[in-house]
Every structure is written in C-alpha cells, then in structure tokens.
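Entry 14: structure prediction run for Acetyltransferase. Input pasted below.
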Amino acid sequence: MESINFVELKEENLEGEGCYCLRSKPNSHGYRNKSKWLKNQFQEGLKYVKVMENNKPAGFIEYTPIENSSRVVHGENYLVIHCLWVNITGKGYASQLIKKCIQDAKKQNKAGVIVITNPDTSWTPSKDIFIKNKFKEIARAPYGFELLVYKLGEASDPYFPNDWEERLHIFNDLTILRTPQCPFVDVATDNVMSAANKVGIKATIIDIQDREELLRISPTPYGIYGVVYKEKLISYHRLTVHSAYKKLKELV
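Run finished. Output tokens:
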C-alpha cells in the first residue's frame, strides 16, 4: 500500500531529513550553503515542506514572507513561493503543496500568495499548475518573468519594479550577483568563472547581503542569481561552460 506524508523541515530535523535539491551531493559547497541559509531563514518564517512517497522524496515547496523573500517583487503581507518541484507527476502532489501554502497564508492572515514564473527556464515553477489552482497573472517583466497572485482579501496587488534597464547600467565589468537560496548557484557561478577565464576577462562576484540590496540591484525578478556584462544580462540561470563562453565571447 502506498504511503504518502508531508514533512516540514525545521532546524532540529534539517540534518536528518535534508533539503530536496542537490540532495545527492550533501557535502557540496552549494548544499552546505543552502542548509546554513535555511537554518537562518526558518527563524524568519520560511517554510520548506517535502512530500514523501513510500519514504522517498516526491517533491517539495519553499515559501516565505515577502519581507524576507529572494524574489524582487514589492507588496505587503504576502507569502512568496520560492520553489515548487515534484519528481513524481500525475498524482496531484504539486497542487497539494500549493494548497498547504494557501492554508498557511490564511492561518497567518496574509493578503495572499505570490509566485514568479518564467516559461523559458526550469529554474522557476511552471505557470500552468498555479493557474489551475486559481492564481492570476497580474504583471510581466523583461526576460519572460510573470507575476502571479492568489489573493485572500482586498489588499493592494503586489508589483514588479519598473527600472530593469537602469539596473543593467550599474555593471560594465562581468558581474555575478547571487544569494545562497538555491544550491545550484554555486555550480552556475563556477561555470561562468571557467568561461570567463577562457575568454580572458575577470569576473566580480557580489554576494547579496539583504533584501534591501536585492531590491535595489538585482537585474531580474528572480533575484537569487544574475550575470551581467557590459550592461547586458548574460543569464539568470545556470549555463554550461560552453554556453557561457559563447555569450561572453560575443561581447568581448
């Protein structure tokens, strides 16, 4: 008989349960950074829930109050879904995880739940599952980003900044902006650094320290990772060394 249960990660069970992403490499720098980041964020209201099928991970959701979110969106009293991923499809696990987040928002008297999607990358959740669960798209930003919301009251809508082009002008040198929210950021950074070495240019890494800085300089709504060179966005997700090399070579 199939066994299904939901496990909420907390500081006391994090080491034993482990987070979902990069779980096959628990000793990697990215995974350790993610675990350290989670311990701090649990104290700020972040929730990380795994769905387990027969004691094996089948998917997870991560969400947090907007005041501590890694996504570049403005609003008051919302929860923001960072990640939603299921590896066993067709059983409704994604919808169940979304509904758990909505229920939590109701318990906390939140204005609603926000998620940012993008059809051009698997680094953001799929838009379709949120539309199915009665989220509504209310805004778009450059590079394919979409702002969806499930409102629980009459509060003001969340919104994107409107200065994306101006943000790119801050960076002429090759710059990698990142936070430890995603464990794959470490690999993504290494690939760009390797490509930069091949091209013969120097890269600067900015480890974003807080939400104020994130809202001010992140080149995209995704927030946790961005690569800019000569005032152009190179990427907001992981590239292979070869792909990064091609993009940089074109601008040298």
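Notes: The CA atoms of residues 26 and 198 lie 30 Å apart. Will compare against the previous run tomorrow.
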